[in-house]
Design brief:
- The structure is a single chain.
- The protein is α/β, with parallel strands linked by helices and 562 residues long.
- It has 4 domains: 13-37 and 511-562, Alpha-Beta Plaits; 43-129 and 462-505, Fumarate Reductase Iron-sulfur Protein, Chain B, domain 2 (Orthogonal Bundle), CATH 1.10.1060; 142-235 and 384-443, FAD/NAD(P)-binding domain (3-Layer(bba) Sandwich), CATH 3.50.50; 237-381, 3-Layer(bba) Sandwich (FAD/NAD(P)-binding domain), CATH 3.50.50.
- The protein is 29% helix and 17% strand.
- The chain has 18 helices and 19 strands.
- The longest helix is centred in the last third of the chain and has 20 residues, at 424-443.
- 44% of the residues are buried.
Length: 562
């Protein structure tokens, strides 16, 4: 059975006649109200298209609809699990672009979507909730997935749920990819990661670790053995600084440093570590180096405003004592006896914007300085390793795939960092999208892109209708306690009461949440309130005079006059 492709919903055709001159007692306007669902901006900003509004309203309206709260949490988890196999992970590491677009941010702060997702992820693990299979069929086609990072796990998850036999090949000793080897445990506890991966494997997915495709097994061997291959290898190789002196043992790339620490391997840091970069890897490396006992300076060639790292992580680094040195770049690493001992740096200033939209750093001639180091961590960028897989990319380009996840190579699909560096949620979406493409190709279903409803902006929401309510925030370990047990998770999951309160802050942008305002303001008895909570309101348009009061007083922008 092929999954349905989402298409824009048509306006709900309401009861009664909709014709000019059809109103009882003479009409004041030819316009009539229509219920037209819009896309909430949080959902539009989510790379996976998670039904955020439905998740939040399911929790928020449980008491109103006399639904046990446990059932509401279970239902909300299942809504998330339809598009996200790793909600407890994403609730911890996603930079939550959904919250940046939340219309409530124009009032009293965005809804804490990420904190609620984290709660639901943990709830699902505690309750032992399992995803459902899409079919009882067991199809004959076999699929190989290379890499057990978020893209590979997502692809395997959806293919297994659709009745396919999937085998994951992972080069490292344990699954998780960059989630395990690139993110510190104080941000993502390993028991959480292990539990969510195990839920994917419980669907019947086979995992083979310590197998390097292209070295231990040729790619052509997989092509001969499997009907389709999904390539989801991560970007585990750091990009060099390209400055003199960097090829010594105490100069690490950001990904190498984090991988060594996460694998409990020895690293040589000393007490004066300099980290170069402004992204998440740089911030993670700096905070990890602190936990290893070093004083840490982070060198970044732009200003704090241009840093691409997650804001909460930057704040965490500031709280913990990382020294930030902005508008500076490395020129040379000074070495003695095969070790880095100092770094010569160049002061910068910001010029015109570059292709990323950020202002380009420009050297200030003659303005240099030198700082002592016992280790240098270069976290400027990273890329996949191509050993044995050179045929997957062309020149300096990475793997190329179309919007459906399909490459030009026979039987080959791809997603995640092998396409381009991106968010975990983007990798999860790309894995799911490739799985859908593979399934549709095998079953002879139509291939099409997902379509979206129009997004409802904040100026179409009656913000004054909603009471001012402060956002619920997670508790965090005090800074002085973070170094007593350095790998213990810093942030705590919201308690149930706080999750419910936070869900109730959702304004249900673009979708009816049964507030009854339209019914209250209609003086013509043109609106029928449903007898059962949660059912749609009905309109008797032959009674409507087109006064527009219902649409004007619909706080969430669901009603339109047409």
């Amino acid at each position: 059975m092929c999954p349905l492709v989402l298409k824009p919903k048509k306006p709900l055709v309401t009861t009664g006649a909709h014709a000019a001159g059809g109103a009882v007692g003479g009409e004041t306007s030819n316009l009539r109200p229509y219920q037209i669902e819009k896309l909430a901006p949080c959902m539009d900003a989510c790379p996976q298209g998670t039904e955020i509004r439905r998740v939040l309203t399911t929790i928020a309206q449980a008491e109103k609809y006399e639904k046990p709260q446990d059932e509401a949490f279970d239902e909300a988890w299942r809504i998330i699990a339809e598009k996200n196999p790793l909600p407890a992970v994403c609730g911890r590491v996603c930079p939550h672009p959904c919250e940046e677009k939340c219309n409530r941010d124009k009032k009293d702060g965005s809804v804490g979507i990420n904190n609620i997702e984290r709660f639901l992820g943990d709830w699902g693990l505690q309750r032992g909730l399992k995803p459902t299979f899409k079919t009882e069929e067991h199809y004959p086609e076999k699929i190989a997935v290379i890499g057990s990072g978020p893209a590979g796990l997502s692809c395997a998850y959806y293919l297994a749920r659709n009745g396919y036999k999937v085998t994951i090949y992972e080069a490292f000793p344990h699954p998780g990819g960059m989630l395990r080897y690139g993110i510190p445990a104080y941000r993502l506890p390993r028991d959480i990661l292990d539990a969510e991966i195990e839920r994917v494997l419980d669907l019947g997915v086979e995992l083979k670790t310590g197998v390097v495709v292209g070295k231990d097994i040729p790619y052509t061997g997989l092509q001969a053995q499997y009907d389709a291959i999904f390539v989801g290898i991560g970007a585990h190789q750091g990009v060099k600084l390209r400055v003199p002196g960097e090829d010594v043992s105490n100069v690490y790339s950001g990904v190498t440093f984090l991988r060594l620490v996460n694998m409990d391997k020895p690293v040589e840091t000393g007490d004066k570590v300099v980290v170069i970069g402004g992204g998440d890897t740089a911030i993670d490396a700096a905070r990890v180096a602190l936990r290893l006992g070093a004083k840490v300076t982070l060198l970044y060639r732009r200003t704090r405003n241009e840093m691409p790292a997650i804001e909460e992580e930057i704040v965490g680094a500031e709280e913990e004592g990382v020294v930030f040195h902005f508008l500076a770049a490395p020129l040379e690493i000074i070495t003695e006896d095969g070790k880095a001992v100092a770094m010569r740096c160049q002061r910068m200033e910001l010029g015109e914007p570059d292709a990323s939209g950020r202002r380009r750093p420009v050297p200030i001639p003659g303005d240099e300085f030198t700082i002592p180091v016992t280790a240098v961590i270069a976290a400027v960028s990273q890329e996949p390793g191509w050993d044995g897989l050179d045929h997957l990319h062309t020149g300096r380009d990475w793997v190329k795939a179309d919007k459906l996840g399909e490459t030009s190579i026979e039987k080959t699909f791809a997603g995640g960092d092998v396409l381009d560096l991106g968010l975990v949620t983007i990798a999860l979406y790309q894995g799911r999208r490739a799985a859908e493409t593979i399934h549709r190709r095998f079953r002879g279903c139509e291939l099409s892109e997902e379509s979206k409803l129009p997004v409802i902006p904040a100026d179409k929401i009656t913000l004054t209708y909603y009471e001012n309510v402060l956002r619920q925030e997670c508790e965090k370990l005090a800074v002085e306690d973070r170094f007593k047990e350095p790998w213990v998770e810093i942030a705590k999951t919201l308690p149930e009461a706080a999750v419910i309160a936070e869900a109730k802050r959702c304004m249900s942008c673009g979708s009816c949440f049964d507030c009854g305002s339209c019914w209250s303001y209609c003086q013509d008895n043109a609106i029928i309130k449903p007898l059962q909570d949660g059912m749609p309101y009905k309109f008797k348009l032959e009674f409507c005079k087109g006064c527009n009061k219902c649409a004007e007083n619909c706080p969430c922008g669901y009603l339109e006059m047409k």
